[in-house]
Amino acid sequence: AAAAGYSDGTLQRYQKTIGILGDKDITDAMQLRIKDSTLTADLLDIKNNNNNSVTQCVENGEVYLRINANKVQNTHISVLLYDRSTNELIYYKVISPSNNGINNYSFNLTGIPIGKYNLAVLNENIDSTSTRPVIASAVSDLMPLEIVKPHKITYTKTPLSGASAGKEYEFSKNVNAGQAVGKVTVNPTGVTPLTYTLETNGDNSYLNFEIDGLDSNNASSSTPLNVKIKSGAPDLVNGGLKAGTYKFCVSAKDANGDPATATSDSKVCTSFTVEKTDLSIAFNDPTQTKKSISDAATSWNETATANPNAGTKITYSVSGGDISLISINPDTGAITYTGSNAFGKVKIKATVDDDPTTGNDNYNSAFVEKEIVIY
User: Fold this and answer.
1) How far apart are CA 283 and CA 122, in angstroms?
2) What is the pLDDT of residues 47-77, one digit of tens each?
């Protein structure tokens, strides 16, 4: 039975009133349904937007009921929802005029709380102008439907150890191919498995990353999942992400394809910076060099070694003292005496930075000095 006003297509809540009715108010009196064998309503399946059978759907979502029914007079398809634990009828909703044969009927779940239900349908005549009984089919067999909270994803930075103090991510330290930079956690999980997509957050740097643990359809029921640096990522230099800022978004749809449009719960965006690595450099002979004027007439080399030396370049210069005594080749460190029989002390410097031919800027420059005495 359902009150005549229940036929307006809105969700109706059945509630028991215990005790005496008092003045016998019949404003909302129930209209009986009487089974008529000429009406049919067989619930064949519950499907999602992708036409897949489901037993779960997110709160305020939508499912499609596969029903075999017939149209007689002003018949409509109605849904009955029972509490699965108590078998008590708690919700009723008229969803659509009946159609002949097997059809999919949309059932919007807006307003139904999360919980475990059994769902049935019936095919019934609708007459909202009367309280007299109307004809209806038998109630269909039950099918389970659980309504759950939609999934919500969060992203957490998880830099691996190895970076210098005060740095989260550092070139050549903890941003190498295959290493994780963060993790995606889902709570609540919604209808699993979730299908994940890595998307742009304003540039193409998202192409350097992938979500670990996904199947061939980019789906997983597990949480959390690591976001890691791809092997062969476009911004790798010597196997590690070059210094700079990286941005990406992660979005997820549930097994029913919800949400159709990403929400703040189903999509999260982030960015992080890979800091430059500090260089170190030392002269191969760090002690003071002493040359007589006659010895200095023969050119010699003062060379240094940098760490790391891949992708870096050392430049030599005269940095102080009696700078007119010598000249130094900026690329090789070769010293030429130019003092014209003068003597004194002069400082030279070796500076290391990114090799300009690489076009990269992954290092903080460093320098070292030493003293040369001409006597």
Assistant:
1) 90
2) 998 899 999 999 999 999 999 999 998 899 9
Phi and psi at residue 358, in whole multiples of 5°?
Answer: -80, -25
* Neighbour tally for 172: CB within 10 Å: 23
Q: Which residues pair with 249 in a beta bridge?
A: 199, 269
What pLDDT is recorded for position 30? 84
The answer to whether the beta carbons of residues 337 and 326 sit under 8 Å apart is yes
Q: Helix H segments across the chain? A: 293-296
Contact indicator for 251, 266 with CB cutoff of 8 Å: yes
Closest to 78 in 3D by CA, of 10, 162, 173: 10
Total count of residues recorded for the chain: 375
DSSP reduced 3-state for 238? coil
CB atoms within 10 A of CB 322: 17
Q: Report whether 150 contacts 187 (CB < 8 A).
A: no
pLDDT tens digits for range 168-181: 999 999 999 999 99
CA distance 84 to 369: 81
What is the pLDDT, as a whole number, of residue 186? 98
> pTM here?
0.82
Buried b or exposed e, range 219-240, using 16+ CB within 10 angstroms: bbeebbbebbbeeebebbbeeb
Q: In angstroms, rounded to a whole number, what is the distance separating the alpha carbons of residues 262 and 66?
A: 27
* CB distance 350 to 367 below 8 Å: yes
Average pLDDT across each block of 10 residues of the chain; the chain has 375 residues. List them in order: 88 81 66 94 95 94 96 94 96 97 97 97 91 93 97 97 96 96 97 97 97 97 98 95 98 94 96 97 97 96 95 96 96 96 97 95 97 97
Cα–Cα dist 345/333, whole Å: 17
Residue 34: both structure tokens together: 């009487």
CA distance 91 to 155: 38
Q: What are phi and psi of 206, to 5 degrees?
A: -65, -20
